[in-house]
Amino acid sequence: xxxxxxxxxxxxxxxxxxxxxxxxxxxxxxxxxxxxxxxxxxxxxxxxxxxxxxxxxxxxxxxxxxxxxxxxxxxxxxxxxxxxxxxxxxxxxxxxxxxxxxxxxxxxxxxxxxxxxxxxxxxxxxxxxxxxxxxxxxxxxxxxxxxxxxxxxxxxxxxxxxxxxxxxxxxxxxxxxxxxxxxxxxxxxxxxxxxxxxxxxxxxxxxxxxxxxxxxxxxxxxxxxxxxxxxxxxxxxxxxxxxxxxxxxxxxxxxxxxxxxxxxxxxxxxxxxxxxxxxxxxxxxxxxxxxxxxxxxxxxxxxxxxxxxxxxxxxxxxxxxxxxxxxxxxxxxxxxxxxxxxxxxxxxxxxxxxxxxxxxxxxxxxxxxxxxxxxxxxxxxxx
Length: 383
Hints:
By secondary structure, the protein is an alpha/beta fold. The protein has one domain: Alpha/Beta hydrolase fold, catalytic domain (Rossmann fold, 3-Layer(aba) Sandwich), CATH 3.40.50.1820. It is 34% helix and 23% strand. The chain contains eleven helices and 13 strands. Helix 4 crosses helix 11 and helix 8 packs across helix 9. The longest helix is centred in the last third of the chain and has 20 residues. The radius of gyration is 20 Å and the shape is globular. The chain starts with a helix and ends with a strand.
């Protein structure tokens, strides 16, 4: 792993692409404000970052990747900190006054071993279109969570030894093939329970705590017991969830098991069997890439949740040529294709399509406006 990181470092430095991905250019009419605040109490809190429609600019703009986050990312990924750091200023205004009115709310959960801002380009676009996006860091599980001066880094997952990635990805491919072959929901549930033991056992132990953190946030929002500048502007009668990978599984769970949630969009993630409640009337969609990790193991997520999507009358969207990390802001570093981190999809097309599909889905189900567009490079199935 260290040798691999050194090779990537050299290539990125030579290419000049290490620290200059394109900055988000939102297409909506609203200015975007930002606030970071803990929600909860001293014993149980969640680090919440809000992106919201703003009435006017503030004096301070948000840094793309702050130094403290860059340092933790560097340690986690075995890379030099200067490659992670990006001190360019976004057109996002810290603690700007919220725009007038009330806005639908979206809550985001990041992937395992990641961080709240991993899909920042999506947050900025959605906020510019009149949504409040609340993205969560989970103390001890996210790379870095903050509560005032208190900073909590990720607690390493217990391991019995080095992981053979080829073996793990081949197992994942076999598991996903078994899920695709399940043609009825009952068969899918039995298969998924086995897949959880084969491929997700190490992380599944954290799932209940992530759910508890989301329930805490929801309860505090409903009670109005937060320091959010936009608290009075939240339209909690129109509430959606989205998330990537493990966070996508959390998003689907919250929709199935909380009466407060109206819609969820799972970005290239599984759904764990314990989540399933097909009596819920919420709206569901599942996005997938169709290229596996390194395009070698066949471990892509495409259609692994199809029997569930069918039972829920949900939708599925396949992004042609996308790999797992194309559904995060790493998509904006096309050089990572060389190392099997990203798929063959054009990264600008991927970003534009993902922004549009998310906006279309939530507009349809939270604002009763339109439907998901059929976009070049995607395959949409509405059950």
